[in-house]
Amino acid sequence: MTTVAAYAAPAAKAPLERTTIERREVGEFDVLIDIKFAGICHSDIHQAREGWGEAIFPMVPGHEIAGVVAEVGSGVTKFKVGDRVGVGCLVDSCRECENCQAGLEQYCLKGVTGTYNALDKNGEPTYGGYSQKIVVDENYTVRIPDGLSLDVAAPLLCAGITTYSPLRHWNAGPGKKVAIVGLGGLGHMGVKIAHAMGAEVTVLSQSLRKQEDGLKLGADHYHATSDPKTFEELRGTFDLIVSTVSAPLDFGAFLSLLKTDGALVNVGAPEEPISLNLFSVIGGRKTLAGSGIGGIGETQEMLDFCARHGIGAEIELISASEINEAYERVLSSDVRYRFVIDTATI
Ligand code: NAP
Ligand code: ZN
Ligand code: ZN
């Protein structure tokens, strides 16, 4: 075991504080990663506050991990010491079910092992990226291409793949009108990626406060959802809407913005259920779908895509002592557009 400095929530809703954790010995197929940067995802906050239900404490959040390989196990073939690597939301899965076999490890039928707030195969709690080192199986580690700096690459491991995967699956591209709801961590990556895929991109944000940024990120249009005229003007406009909103939303209103056969894909994970009048999908044969992160192979594909298109996250680099303040700012939609922890400050 190796003792590693980390930032942890000791209990639900308690502020995060510096602590130490134990990392397992480097096994035959493991890589030891010196973590350089860790993004703060809204999911970290949902879990640290038990918004999604009972959680495991102490909790070291963080599933947007970028770092450098410091040691490899004897059986490792994919990585060597010095390689620039990333780890996202999962660190293991059954590897045998039909989803794992199809590269959809995130939907493993036996359940994935989350990077934190989970128990591994040996029943040990997993701890995430707000720490200086992590040991991960090489099959759940991805390569960060040379063209991407590690700090702006870290958020791609969750915010990037969570938006890339549905945009790919629902064929965002030339000739397609795509709307991204919510311009936060996921939303701003969605705008960049959908634009790079060639789609006509609209941001639907609560206000016009971030309009200038949204257009710079690659959006063609920007509308405020607080303005009822938005819903009149844009009725029947979009082929695809991806909602990244962290709070319950009036999905009926957003479904009315789809064309016939359009799809509204929700990736936001609010803490409360929503209610929906189903007539909003019947008229116009509309799809309401969800999507969760992405598989390991698809995460690599996304990183390569982002490197080719020169896409990284827009980040605010913070020291570990600023994590609690950053959480408050995320909760008040005051993030531009991802907080990233410099793990050297832990
Ligand atoms: P974030 O940075 O806080 O962004 C969420 C954005 O939603 C905000 O910036 C805001 O954008 C909008 N918003 C917030 N509260 C709202 C409200 N009450 N009404 C309308 N809009 C609101 O969060 P994130 O890290 O991008 O994560 C977003 C959600 O996705 C979270 O629930 C997270 O847990 C979930 N998530 C899901 C997956 C998955 O696999 N499906 C993966 C990662 C994260 P505007 O200011 O522009 O309106
Ligand atoms: Zn996340
Ligand atoms: Zn599986």
What does this structure look like?
This protein is of the alpha/beta class. It has 2 domains: 209 residues, Alpha-Beta Complex (Quinone Oxidoreductase, Chain A, domain 1); 131 residues, Rossmann fold. 24% of the residues lie in helices and 26% in strands. It contains 11 helices and 17 strands. The strands form 4 sheets. Strands 3, 4, 5, 8, 9, 16 and 17 form a 7-stranded mixed β-sheet that branches. It has a 6-stranded parallel β-sheet with strand order 12-11-10-13-14-15, with helices on one face. Strands 1-2 form a two-stranded antiparallel ribbon. Helix 4 crosses helix 5 and helix 4 packs across helix 10. The protein is globular. The mean pLDDT is 98. One zinc ion binds next to loops. The site of one zinc ion has 9 residues, from helix 2.
Shape: globular
How many domains? The number is: 2
Can you list the ligands bound to this structure? NADP nicotinamide-adenine-dinucleotide phosphate, zinc ion
State the share of residues found in helices, binned by percent: 10-25%
Major β-sheet profile: 7 strands, mixed
Structural category: alpha/beta
Q: What's the CATH topology name of the largest domain?
A: Quinone Oxidoreductase, Chain A, domain 1
Which CATH class of the largest domain applies here? Alpha Beta
Number of helices: 11
Regions with pLDDT < 50 over 5+ consecutive residues?
A: none
> What is the annotated CATH architecture of the largest domain?
Alpha-Beta Complex
CATH homologous group name of the largest domain: Medium-chain alcohol dehydrogenases, catalytic domain
Determine Rg (CA atoms, Å): 20 Å
Percentage of β-strand residues: 25-35%
Distance between the termini: 19 Å
**How many strand segments?**
17
